Amino acid sequence: MKTEKSIMTNEEKICFSLRSLYSEYGYSYFKMSKFEEYDLYGQNKDFLISDSVITFTDTDGKLMALKPDVTLSIVKNSSANPKGVDRYFYNENVYRISDSTRRYKEILQTGLECMGNLTDYNIFEVVYLAARSLESISENNVLVLSHLGVLKAILENTEFNREQLLKKISEKNLRGVEEICAEFSIDDKTADILKTITISDGEPEKVIRQITCKTENVKIKNALKELESAVIFCKSSGYEKLRVDFSLVSDMNYYNGIIFRGYVKEIPTRVISGGQYDNLMKKMGKNSKAVGFAVYLDLTERLKKDDSADVDVLLIYGNSDDPLKVIKAVNAFIEKGESVAAYNYVPEKLTYLRKVCLSELEMKV
Question: In Å, how far are 45, 163, 285 from 42, measured between CA atoms?
Answer without folding.
Answer: 6, 21, 17
